[in-house]
Amino acid sequence: MRLIIILITTIALLFFCKCSRSAVIDLSDVETPTGTQESAVRDLIIRTIGEDASKSFVIHVDKTMPSRSFQIKKIEASTLSIVGSDGVAAAKGFHHYLKYYLHKHIDWTNTKVELQLPTQLPNATIFSKSASNFIYYQNVCTWSYSFAWWTFSNWRRHIDWMAMMGVTLTLAPIQEHIWHEIYVEMGLTKDEIDDHFAGAAFQAWQRMGNIRGWGGPIPHSYRRMQKILQQRILKAERDLGMRVALSAFAGHVPVAMTRIFPNNTFTPVERWNHFPDKYCCGLFLDPSDPLFNQIAVKFLNKTIETYGSDNIYFCDPFNEIQPRFANAEYMNATAFHIHESMRLVDNSAVWLLQGWMFVKNIFWTDELIKAFLLAVPLGKMLVLDLQSEQFPQYERTHSFHGQPFIWCMLHNFGGTLGMHGSVDIVNTQIRLARDVVTTSMVGVGITAEGINQNYAMYELALERGWMKDDFDLNNWFDVYADVRYGIRETRMRSAWQLLRQSVYSYKGLLKIRGKYSIARRPSTNLSPWVWYNTSNVYIAWAQMISVIGNTTIPLYNLPFVSHDLVDITRQFLQITFDQLYINLMVAYTSKNMEKYVFIADKMLEALQDLETTLATNMDFSLSRWLEAAKNLGRTPVEKQLYEMNARNQITAWGPNGQILDYATKQWSGVVIDYYRPRWALFLQMLQKKSRA
């Protein structure tokens, strides 16, 4: 009998292994024509290196190749063939040759390369297949922290970068124009709708039900403009062969819905981050209520009519929100009805779910997680394990109970600045997650809340997601330094190795949220900490300075050099300020006022030095953020509204500082007009208090 039980258990485990590996995501119903993808990649190459140089690259998309693969082959002295299984794979192959053979660099927004091709192109015969079915990029919050004021010209460059990095799956969250139509059809008044929609810089959290109305109302012109923008973004992404997840109905609705539907099952959402009643506590419509399907089907039909479909949809019913009931039956029914509402419109619907709700949340027991995940057929849900580099959930959830998932590096919160990262963890844990016997991992992604910081971490993660084996990190960072600066310089290589061994060596569980003393509200209770030898940063900084002063940098690479020099100087001053603060507190508590005054002056000098340094590069400028916001406005009133949104997000984050400094920015303009005055006031008050 015991032997039979063992055999049955073994068979069950084997079956689970097979199920978890075979529960693949099938998005094959929608396919961009081969010719369209080839043309899109050719246009990308022209935008990147110019029309003349682009003639040396022959692009072909061959769907008979293994999925997610490219082949590079030199066919003539000055002609190279790049064949990809899809447009993204071909663009990835082009970037591989650009970086590793022509030694040219691109990043988030700098994708135009000055290139003089040699008569004889470097030889290359390469076949490369991605180890990931999906390379994913974006976080719902990125659309507010980084993309809020972008126009299509910003997106055009960024989509080119995405393709060259191998990104195959992304998000399209713009939806307010559709909801406005639906709310009007359902009988809501203009005031009721205006009270619901959050402002342009806060829409991510209104969409997830965390807040309502703050920063609004949003003008009709903005809704229309955003609709057109998303249509253009989607066309550009799909032309390259990317798949895009559209928004679906998660259950969050305006509070005024109870006026129209008094007998349906609505639950007030719990207060989020102490937001006042006016801006919090919207309603959650129970997915088992018949009204849920009516709204969900109408919304998804309009969404597909407006944007087309790739059979994948995202929604997050419980993002930093506690569900109404802590029982498995409720969780199972909730997930089932949400997915079922998608399936009623699209029988091939896949639900893309952020796994953030499970992270460090004791509400979500193993029983509740399992009930929620398994309410959806295996392979019809794709989970983003949002911060796998620090708090992986695939381990505690038994690989999400067989639902396919993507290993994601979150890394950044709020778009804050500050050098940090976990290169060793990213390098090794992707492989270890793939190698788990029962893994349901199908891809790798980057899910930063804000971009335009620590670029090396993201290039590393995306390249690592494509590759099967771990990188030699010494070699990877040497190549990164060579290509980024356009020279092979021992001191630049050494600087990056020192950074790798210090700021990018984090392996702990403490949260890194950009909360450095220099950018925090002053207090006597701050606790600055670092996990690395700060002298490594000082030495790296000195090495970069010595190179810049004595070496000719190619003109094309100067923007990268300028950015990094400002950034490492900013890091140097950030560390210095932390240490000054520690010394200040020692002087204050020991009542050594002479020393206190001396250190206080040095702190204000450091802030002035930081402002001066940041002002030398527009990448670190408040004015760029504010001007982009105001430029979206068509009237003085709209410009004022968008500027308020832009300023509030990076400071008070709420009507009364509800999430103060969460999205703070070490930018020129912020330092001189925000950080320095409040530190000066604090230091003065503390000195008066001590004397009293």
TrEMBL record:
Keyword Hydrolase annotated: yes
Signal peptide stretch: 1-22
Gene3D superfamilies: Chitobiase/beta-hexosaminidase domain 2-like, Glycosidases, N-acetyl-b-d-glucoasminidase
Residues in Alpha-N-acetylglucosaminidase N-terminal domain copies: 40-122
Pfam families the UniProt entry points to: NAGLU (PF05089), NAGLU_C (PF12972), NAGLU_N (PF12971)
Entry-linked InterPro entries: Hex-like_dom2, NAGLU, NAGLU_C, NAGLU_N, NAGLU_tim-barrel
Domain Alpha-N-acetylglucosaminidase C-terminal: 476-689
Keywords: Hydrolase, Signal
All residue ranges annotated as the Alpha-N-acetylglucosaminidase tim-barrel domain in the record: 136-467
Molecular function via GO: hydrolase activity
Name listed for the protein in its UniProt record: Alpha-N-acetylglucosaminidase
Name of the gene: NAGLU_1
